[in-house]
Amino acid sequence: MFxxxxxxxxxxxxxxxxxxxxxxRINPNLLTVIxxxxxxxSGVLFGxxxxxxxxxxxxxxxxxxxxxxxxxxxxxxxxxxxxxxDSTFDRISDMAAFVGLMTFYARDTEHHSTLNVLLxxxxxxxxxxxxxxxxxxxxxxxxxxxxxxxxxxxxVLLIIGALSTHPGSESLFANxxxxxxxxxxxxxxxxxxxxxxxxxxxxxxxxxxxxxxAAEAPAQSxxxxxxxxxxxxxxxxxxxxxxxxxxxxxRTRHRGEPRPSPALTKGE
Length: 268
Known about the structure:
The protein has 268 residues and is an all-alpha fold. It contains 8 helices and no strands.
């Protein structure tokens, strides 16, 4: 009940913002550029160690990610280039946050952690592979959005990890970014592998042979045609006759006429 109320409230706020931007005929590509710029700022804040503010900025940045597509649809400005630009800039936004985290954990400070640098790098590679696998698969099959760790889930996890970071806090729920990186690294590669499997399965199903009933239909039609011709007094062609023999009228040989010799074929 409480979660549904929050969702309805957020939808009303976003709807009001979309209507306002649509009335001003704001170019949705401009919203996309603003969104990726704010995401890059969030990555810089991650690199400097300001995790909490990086999380706040990440929320604002992804608000623009939700607005650009809705404004484009409402104003009739949906274009193939707009979709391409949005997808490409989403990859930049993903990598900006992970590069910032890698920079922070690689710095010579008390928070230095080679393991966290590795996890952030794996999570970045996995996120790109997930998106690429989906884009490439959808050129072969209708849809490939399976797997639990898509971009919205990755963003929510990064926001949770950022907002929970409070150095010096002893709370069980504080400083959860390392745990978030584990989830992102493992979950991204799992989602990538699942999308590869899903694409393989769908392609195999699409290329499967037709049922045997369909294959037997022509044979049954031929048998029915043969029965019908026999019923009307027309003899059917012998089983071993070729297509040129079928229906050929036989010539009556008169008494005393020599029997024709068979035609020679190649190799005889």
